[in-house]
Amino acid sequence: MPPTRSHIRDLVTAYLVRHPAEEALLAPLVLALEAKDDPTSRSTLPGHVTCSAVVVDRDRRVLHIHHRATGKALAPGGHVEEGDRTLLEAALREVHEEAGLPPAALCATAEYGSAPFDIDVHDIDASPTKGEPAHRHYDFRFAFCLVDTTAQIAPQPEEASGAEWLPFDEVASPALRAKLVASGLDGRIEPLNASALIHDGDGRYLLHLRDDVPGIWEPGSWALLGGGREPQDGSLEATVRRELAEEAGLEVPVLAPFATESATGTDGMSVPVQVFAGQWNGDPAELTLTEGVMLAWFSLETMPRLRLSPSTLALVRRHASSARPELRRSARTVERRRPTPVSGRQPGAGSGSVPNIVGVHLYLERDGRVLLGLRHPSAAFAASTHHFLAGHCEQESAVSCLVREAEEEAGLVIDPDDVELVHLVHLVDRVGGQPRMGVVFRARRWQGTPEVREPDRCVSWGWWPAGALPHPVVPYTRAAIEGIQAGRLYTELGWT
């Protein structure tokens, strides 16, 4: 889908704020944006929108391509295509196609960001061979800085005879030349985004689980809080403080510059990011999150198991290695309570003893509703049936198993200290069958919203009234919920 009229209109409006003297020149374009025809289509007459890339290096020079057809040296550019979501993306595509420079070799300028540096209006002669009458181009020119100075310029040989870098005062276009000479553009790479590396002083770092939706930065990943600089921000520290307040209602007393990192934006460009470090010791569950899914503390030891960009993991490791000795530990040491036995008696070890399979189950209740998952139709156990979030222990304690399964199956983060035993179900499916012990734990608090993480096992999560459970539901799950509601700790099923 090509760029929308509203997108183009916003760019023109912002441009005219900088260049009010060009209002009369662009009046036909403003009028065309109210018409029904696509303003970016080359068939729209008497004029349509095109895009160009003004690539500036650190010697204050601009990239030009020598076109065979016209004999002119021009900035890379051309018509908007169907897959271009924005005019800036069209300019990036053109410079990649015409000069061989990928978006990752470029970044936006601090002065102009995603706004056009210049909008040039020029007439195009008729082309009988293309069947095109004389018409007009409204060329949106976007400024970029060259990030990768080792990138090779590779013009298309069938269309271009070469490429060169021209100083500002030698640029052929009078309007572009005048704006470049008067500008402060110098090709320096400056951060436009700011992020917060927040730690608790005890080896844990605060991460933000982003929404898993297309068109955003790092969808569905754990990342640092932060965002892009806005016009009202007096500094990048002001940017990161505003983002913390807007996204999570979070105020960190002291934020200090820690590092400058390079990320990849949704358009493929390099995005320099100023990272600020600060300490905060609060509970993420008490914050009001307005963007993304959840906030949670993680130790460095846990982070390699998360969906996390390698650059963010490397950044955290660098901070941990440079911090105070107590922060250099690879993980926070958590002293976990040993589960209290239900009975003081030890299991018998006589000849009549048989192994029992132990499964752990998560009981979450919210406003009188209990969390249950609908099992996949092909699941080996309880296909197409509602059941607790559950799993079997590996070489780990039952509480550790519960915490692990909650994160793996539903993206929920649970502190072991918030877990309590609420029910036991001892059952057997048939006479002589394998006995099972279902251990049901309640989490008093948790972080996150249940999401389907293992679609081959569970197709959905839902909150159901404890007194009106869905159908069908695993029988011992129903029995356990009824027992919990009645205040009973223990249930037996299938024994005769």
Automatic annotation (TrEMBL):
Span of domain Nudix hydrolase: 46-189, 189-321, 355-486
Coiled coil ranges: none
Protein name per UniProt: NUDIX hydrolase
Protein keywords: Hydrolase
Cofactors named for this entry: Mg(2+)
Biased composition (Basic and acidic residues): 325-338
Lineage per the UniProt record: Bacteria, Bacillati, Actinomycetota, Actinomycetes, Kitasatosporales
GO MF: hydrolase activity
